[in-house]
């Protein structure tokens, strides 16, 4: 019974947090989107360093995490937020067909450009030359783009 009570409290707490987040997002869409993107990119870097690369706390690069958060705050949040606003204006509605059209346009048109810019920015912040960044972009791009 105690476990059930704790689980219910946790679920209720998460619901309250989610509603608060949604309210803030409605009131301040740009600020919340940018903060969310920066936070998620930072958390993603922590996961990459700790789980994927297995660096341990002593080997964790806080500088790298801060750089990634800056990219999230200054590039990912504003660009992705602006793109989704543009998509909503270009293809209004909320049917499955509208969602499919948005997804195709996003994946075919936006994603390759976004990824190229993201890799170029991260490369520049990590001291790569333009040639090294371009080589990295070509390694992760499908043949038709390269």
What does this structure look like?
- Helices cover 85% and strands 0% of the residues.
- With 146 residues, the protein is mainly α.
- The longest helix has 30 residues, at 96-125.
- The protein is globular.
- The model has no long low-confidence stretch (mean pLDDT 90).
Percent of residues in β-strands: under 5%
Shape: globular
Low-confidence stretches: none
N to C succession of SSEs? HHHHHH
**Strand tally:** 0
Individual helix count: 6
Instruction: Indicate the radius of gyration in whole angstroms.
Output: 19 Å
Q: Whole-number average pLDDT? A: 90
Keywords: Membrane, Transmembrane, Transmembrane helix
Membrane topology: Multi-pass membrane protein
GO molecular function, one term: channel activity
Protein name: Mitochondrial inner membrane protein Mpv17
Structure keywords:
mainly alpha; 146 residues; 0% strand; 6 helices
Question: How would you summarize this macromolecular structure in one to three sentences?
Answer:
This protein has 6 helices and no strands.
Strand and helix map with partners:
Blueprint: H1 2-27, H2 29-52, H3 56-59, H4 62-90, H5 96-125, H6 130-140
Helix pairs in contact: 1-2, 2-4, 4-5, 5-6
